Amino acid sequence: xxxxxxxxxxxxxxxxxxxxxxxxxxxxxxxxxxxxxxxxxxxxxxxxxxxxxxxxxxxxxxxxxxxxxxxxxxxxxxxxxxxxxxxxxxxxxxxxxxxxxxxxxxxxxxxxxxxxxxxxxxxxxxxxxxxxxxxxxxxxxxxxxxxxxxxxxxxxxxxxxxxxxxxxxxxxxxxxxxxxxxxxxxxxxxxxxxxxxxxxxxxxxxxxxxxxxxxxxxxxxxxxxxxxxxxxxxxxxxxxxxxxxxxxxxxxxxxxxxxxxxxxxxxxxxxxxxxxxxxxxxxxxxxxxxxxxxxxxxxxxxxxxxxxxxxxxxxxxxxxxxxxxxxxxxxxxxxxxxxxxxxxxxxxxxxxxxxxxxxxxxxxxxxxxxxxxxxxxxxxxxxxxxxxxxxxxxxxxxxxxxxxxxxxxxxxxxxxxxxxxxxxxxxxxxxxxxxxxxxxxxxxxxxxxxxxxxxxxxxxxxxxxxxxxxxxxxxxxxxxxxxxxxxxxxxxxxxxxxxxxxxxxxxxxxxxxxxxxxxxxxxxxxxxxxxxxxxxxxxxxxxxxxxxxxxxxxxxxxxxxxxxxxxxxxxxxxxxxxxxxxxxxxxxxxxxxxxxxxxxxxxxxxxxxxxxxxxxxxxxxxxxxxx
Length: 627
Description:
Structural class: alpha/beta
């Protein structure tokens, strides 16, 4: 018998699907009826005659639309509201405003400052001209109007915003003051007032940032980090008390150079110590190559914070696959940590001559050699020997692979160490076995180019941002990734969708969680669906992630056979984004996701194509906290 069925016309009836409802219970074969954008009925053998269209989903998995809990799609949504790169992988709800950055106050253009461009350019590796396209679309200047504007654009997935701390400080103080002096008491009070106001409007939480390589991109502050990192603990505690009182979420990132401070702040989640738990969603539980085994300590910490002893509400965000990072020359997060390469990144993206002039100085070359040696996996420092890395990432030439974009075809897909060995052979007088394209590069190397970092620097001088490469920095062991993803104190979703647009691509992260679960049976898949739908919805206080009667019909159909064979690493590619007028790195999981519905409208369908409704009609909504 149908659950909730009523006599009347259904817009769509999906029949014979294996339904995972997000509860974690084993799936059952059911029919799902959709009417007026909502789940109208569920059950077996629902009447096809009541539906305007019938979809036979025999052999497919049906589940609620998936949540992506860590995105920077705040920008792209203004020029490309359909957000197809997220939707095609089954994502129907995205959380924005992460890492203290966002657009809740609009462009915030005043006193000659452009905070969006200043903050996002280097932190999220997005070119200024791309960001300017997004800024030009921003017509609001209050947090309330930001929420309202989503109903006036053809929004694809639902948007759930955090209030970003860097933008809050900028709104009250301006960029210059926010990184140059402490706020006055009146400014502190104004930040509290604006945060309270945003909580009243339904913002799901508040985000800050402490990552040491997050720098501003505009003069005169290119050597300074983003505004949130200049807040003292009194400011943070006062603002977080508002978040705690409202039972909203604090999205936090660690300070890897001051781990005691990070650890102390994570303890702020404790209801036992502070009277009421504070929900904390923290970056990130990864199995970093630079710190093997550290993931175990993180999970133990989270378990302690959530124990009955401390009564916390804490989770680490987790990534479902190997952390593969691409670099365009020095344009990559890994190089913001090193003084020599950070100086190059500070140049405007088109200033190739400026970067080359700096790289040709003896001082820069010596600094680069020191920096490279300091983050080598064989770095000789005492801290490295004790398992404490000099930097978040390590530079191992055996891991760095040359990408086909690089203008030397014979190097494509080769390890940097292998190319360097060929260069050494050339320098030692070997005459044969070289290609004409690399001989030209080898011949231009200066006489004192006698180490691997010297050779890498030579390639930077020759090719600048066209010297493209990649390496895996974390989650190399799938069994460890599985343990992290399904730990009770984590949530999947450190995807960074919409950021690092040529460096990272994890839009398919949710599918990869399902793929890992699939290897262990349907009960594990049911748990994975719960962790991608109901669990994050409950943690962030969102009314999505289930298939209840009357719920907005956000639904995904997955082909389990295609999922089993899906290779994410083989399906990352650079494509031209016409809205950005720039290339972006994306995933192509074509065939895995058979159909996606948002508010009952099919937006992605068999044949791997978007339907005309995506990006032309308003489907998703601005989600506010249900409490």
